[in-house]
UniProtKB/TrEMBL annotation:
Residues 1-17 have a biased composition (Basic and acidic residues). InterPro entries: AB_hydrolase_1, AB_hydrolase_fold, AB_hydrolase_sf. Keywords: Hydrolase, Membrane, Transmembrane, Transmembrane helix. The chain crosses the membrane at residues 37-57. GO terms for biological process: acylglycerol catabolic process. Residues 1-30 are annotated as: Disordered. One of its GO terms (cellular component) is membrane. Gene3D superfamilies: alpha/beta hydrolase. This is Alpha/beta hydrolase. Residues 112-366 form the AB hydrolase-1 domain.
Amino acid sequence: MGSSDRHDQLRARDTGRRQGASGLPRRRHVSPANRSLAGLGIGLAAAGVAAAAGIAAGRVTKERHARLAVLAPAGAYAHTPDLELVVIADDGVPLHVEVDEPAPDAATGDKPTVVFSHGFCLSLESWVLQRKELIRDGHRVVTWDQRGHGRSGRGTEESCDIDQLGRDLYRVIEEVAPDGQLVLVGHSMGGMTTMALADQHPDLIRDRVVATAFVATSAGGAQLVSLGFGQYFGKLVGRFGPGVLDRLSARPGLVRTALRAGRDIEEFLVERWSFASPVPPAAVRLTGDMIFGTPLDVMADFLPTFDRHDKRDALVHFHGVEVLVLNGNHDVLTPPEHSEEIVHLIPGAEHVVIEEAGHIIMLEHPEVLNEQFAGLIERGTRAAAEGIEIARKPRVRRTVTDLAKRRRVAKARRGQSSA
């Protein structure tokens, strides 16, 4: 049986687990009070989308020139991996994994394998520009879709949990990168997944991981589901959001009607929560496809785990590992202060804040991230080879401005104006 046939078979088996004896899709129990709140949420969501439509109609047209195609050459986000496979999680959920081997003309040596874990409502496609750069630099790269996202299976409602994601990541590493040095990179929920892995397998971190990057993430102990609405309203979103999303997932026609008004509305919403500077239309489209391609009930199932998330104690296992913490200064989902405790609890960790950057930094400022990752890996491998005591390094916080991108945007705007 081919891997694609096995994947389809396992996906069908997994879907069956999420259904009741009647064969109907599993539904979350919603109390009468929550049903009222959910109904209110649906009304607010519909009203919000309608309002966004009016705003977007003018704003998207007005700012269209800021999302210039020249920022991304044709085919920039296309990529074919060397290997696609399915790794079976410890509870039977199929996880979609892709592996890239080093470029044939790259001097590889003994470079570590880099493992990427994506964020909530995204997929492994979010790392496309980083994986291309790393394989050119001679690294083996592993990317995977977290359960319920991308091409991976979904599992039960109870399995949509950060600790389970940590076990999933361990299975991926066990299957496709069982030996050799590792670099772990996690964005948002993916960073939390890395922390859960360390909590469960500290020996793996100690023995094999030479460097780790936490991108736009949090160790917990703070209100994570604020969505840019502030502390009070953010708590309401975290508390009642699952019920609202579950109700919406039962009414796909409402969602389709809201989005049928046009891509402009979708792009407006994506730009509001994802970016803080001009990005090419293809980046907005890719991000929108990942976000709106995530089932609403999967979003609902995961929201409670963010409110419970607290992996501050697990950070001790990264002592002695070269650690880089990255944030966008205009990230409305996980602003820089959400990551400060990671830096505080890991001696020698570096904190880099990128100006004019939102939550999806890897697509908004790819060259900056590529440069930061290259430096991180070089420091980590050198420290491992020379026995450098990373914990004795002073804590460093730097602010980085993507001047090269600023110049490209300004040049393109001038050219467009003259045209």
